[in-house]
UniProtKB/TrEMBL annotation:
<feature type="signal peptide">
    <location>
        <begin position="1"/>
        <end position="22"/>
    </location>
</feature>
<dbReference type="InterPro" id="IPR002491">
    <property type="entry name" value="ABC_transptr_periplasmic_BD"/>
</dbReference>
<keyword id="KW-0732">Signal</keyword>
<comment type="similarity">
    <text>Belongs to the bacterial solute-binding protein 8 family.</text>
</comment>
<dbReference type="Pfam" id="PF01497">
    <property type="entry name" value="Peripla_BP_2"/>
</dbReference>
<dbReference type="InterPro" id="IPR006311">
    <property type="entry name" value="TAT_signal"/>
</dbReference>
<dbReference type="InterPro" id="IPR050902">
    <property type="entry name" value="ABC_Transporter_SBP"/>
</dbReference>
<protein>
    <submittedName>
        <fullName>ABC transporter substrate-binding protein</fullName>
    </submittedName>
</protein>
<feature type="domain" description="Fe/B12 periplasmic-binding">
    <location>
        <begin position="54"/>
        <end position="335"/>
    </location>
</feature>
Amino acid sequence: MSRRRYLLTALAALVLVTGCGARVRPEAAAPAAGYPVTVKNCGQNVTYTKAPSRIVAYDSGILETLFALGLRDRIAGYVMPHGQNKDIDGSPWRADFERANRLGVDTISKEVVLQAGADFVYAGWNYGFGEDAGLTPQHLTELGVPSYVLSESCRNGIGDRARGTMPALEALYTDLRNLGKIFGVSDRAERLVAEYQGAVRDAEASVRKDRPRPKVFLYDSGTDKPFTGGRFAASHEVITRGGGDDIMGDLQDSWTTVTWEAVVRANPDVIVINDYDPPTAAQKQAFLESYPPLAQVPAIKNKRFLALPYAALVEGPRNPAAIRTVADYLNRIGG
């Protein structure tokens, strides 16, 4: 058989086989330069074979971290509850929010990820990820989509799905450095870490030494029971580094529910309100002032309330500036 006839015969056989439903295994693509890279995320080593180019992300703090790293052009779409719209209005990265593609949903799902053509999902436990929501990193692995979990939200095995394995600023720096490796922007990540560390040092240095440390309660939401931040929430670092004592700082969790009895016993001097809608910060303050069990609490009697944006109180690049805001406020009321 001639070589030409042999090749034609082989080609015909290949067409026949593939037409019957068989698939020819493609050759593996050569690794991108500098890849694979491996980072430790929530205690697990995770390997990425290339720099992602179609991100789907959830939550304003997560998005602002991506914007700070200069990754807006790699965002295929983002999901953010409408209650966080105020974060966009006051964001240093408002232009990035407006230019990025906001998906028309409040929650991430496998369908949303696939429709966006995502090759990377950045979210957190209770920040888009959750068994009840039907989307976890394991679900994404089964779809062949890499993911990364917000370090503030890492589950710690204490109690029922408690979250937090490191101080929130350490979590922020860890995520910046890990994302820098994953996306090939490590130099920018290190510059941001140095900038934020410097801002935190300056904020701490501004705390007046001649004043007491007021007891501070972080009020997020809830009427029957208050939702607040524990030791591993960014709010804890914002309060304590700003010169206050976080009355829920002993809770080995990030964001969680407590009792009003615990708040009354702690007798806070100041209440920081997590400002996202609904209800508004003014409505939250009105409720607190009208709630009879709190009537004798110093923060209520002296009307000492400080509203901070949601994005300043969850892990994200607004944390250092929020520490300075708390320090300035506590300095003013410190006498």
